[in-house]
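Sat 14:20. Reprocessing the chain from the morning session after the first attempt stalled halfway. Input below, unchanged.
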Amino acid sequence: MPGGAGRPRVRMTGAQRRQQLLDVGREVFAQRGYDGTSIEELAARADVSKPVVYEHFGGKEGLYTLVVDREMQRLLDRFTAALAAGGSPRELLERAALVLLDYIEEDTDGFRVLTRDSPAGGSPDGCASLIGEVARKVEHVLGAQFSVRGQDPELAELHSQALVGMVALVGQWWLERRSPGKEQVAAHLVDLAYDGLARLRPPPGAP
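Finished this time. Tokens:
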């Protein structure tokens, strides 16, 4: 059956078509953002009719939500594997920073989707959700260090949010420059965070 511009249309199973639409959606949302993306363009890029997109996802927001969910899971799986490998707290934090920088370098479209605009009143903001989920992965590392240093371990949540947010923001800057190297960037970020942790003031009333 001929497709657009005289090209033969590739026949796919339902699962293959769904995967293709997710891949196309990631690319288009990364380039144009949610508001700048239309069902017409998504369908054209995938060489399908608009009803096919609606059939699989119910509309643009449904596709966007699944693209964001898939990217977050991919990144969180990387963090889980990196932190499970063990090491000193400093090594774990540096490895976590490198995981995010690796993702930015290797899956740039996915990172752009997670840090761009989301539908107003619709799906939760990708970047905010990403920061929160990743921060929970490193919170236990900081919590252990807080206890060792006589700090309130409940403050680990605040500092893990700050650390991951800092890495995500610097990652957006590094994406456009790619200099210095990501290993240097990760080391500088962890130096800043870890040395700051070492100099935290004692809690009020502490001896």
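The two ends are 80 Å apart (CA to CA).
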